[in-house]
Amino acid sequence: MKKKLISEYNKETDTVFSVYYRKRLVKLKSEFQTIEVFQTEKLGRVLIMDKCFMITEKDYKYYHESCLEILKNKIDKKIDILIIGGGDFALVKSLSKFKKIKSLTLVEIDEKVIEICKKFFPYFFKFTQEFYKKINIIIEDGYTWAKKNQKKFDVTIIDCTDPNNIATKLYSYNFYKYIFQNTKKNGYIIQQSGSPIIHSSTIIKPMCNKLEKVGFKKPQLFTFPMPTYPMGTWSFVKSHKG
């Protein structure tokens, strides 16, 4: 039987990353994007959104554990965490190991992402009853929500896609201004910042400049391996409110 491929084309580098798959488990077009889940031999289940690899059962920990590594020495008290994006819940699952989280608010624009991932990646949604009570899920555009929000957070994690028709405004000066207003003194913002190989001038440097302009201090770049993302290396930017 001929093997079938799922592929992601990256226009910046004119490269293609492909994985053989056994079966497509679901394909759904939501109000915002096309969501697919595939069963593969080597990577387990794979989440694809608008033809881009998001998570796989095999390598999701590279991304999410790298985010936690940035945070681990900062969580030394009861803290309130905000996640914008992250509807696959893999990051929430990783955060659930921290006992000092007081509350976790997740703002996701696309409810279908949560529904599909809950069905096909159920492990990410298994929590203790104690931790589950700390989670507040809000289905709304993260930019709109941040603009009107009054609650302040110790840590904000922007777990969104690269700039596209949905996510571009989550990289804007005004958005960072709203997040700054929503951040407690000595609080942190962490945002995925694309590939340091591909996006240094288009995402990373502009992001750092905007963060500093709104008042965040000393943006730092953290890189980590991510085998299923373009060029195999990805990054987060962290900055704090002094």
Description of the structure:
α6 crosses α7. The protein has helices at 60-71, 90-95, 111-120, 129-132, 142-148, 173-181, 200-214; strands spanning 4-10, 15-29, 34-40, 45-49, 52-56, 79-85, 101-108, 135-139, 153-159, 183-192, 217-225, 233-240. β3 (34-40) and β4 (45-49) form a beta hairpin. The radius of gyration is 17 Å and the shape is globular. The model has no long low-confidence stretch (mean pLDDT 95). It folds into two domains: 4-56, Spermidine synthase, tetramerisation domain (Spermidine Synthase, Chain: A, domain 2), CATH 2.30.140.10; 60-240, Vaccinia Virus protein VP39 (Rossmann fold, 3-Layer(aba) Sandwich). Strands 8-7-6-9-10-12-11 form a seven-stranded mixed β-sheet. Strands 1-2-3-4-5 form a five-stranded antiparallel β-sheet. The protein has seven helices and twelve strands. The protein is of the alpha/beta class and 242 residues long. Helix content is 26%, strand content 38%.
Per-chain topology:
Elements: E1 4-10, E2 15-29, E3 34-40, E4 45-49, E5 52-56, H1 60-71, E6 79-85, H2 90-95, E7 101-108, H3 111-120, H4 129-132, E8 135-139, H5 142-148, E9 153-159, H6 173-181, E10 183-192, H7 200-214, E11 217-225, E12 233-240
Parallel strand pairs: 6-7, 6-9, 7-8, 9-10
Antiparallel strand pairs: 1-2, 2-3, 3-4, 4-5, 10-12, 11-12
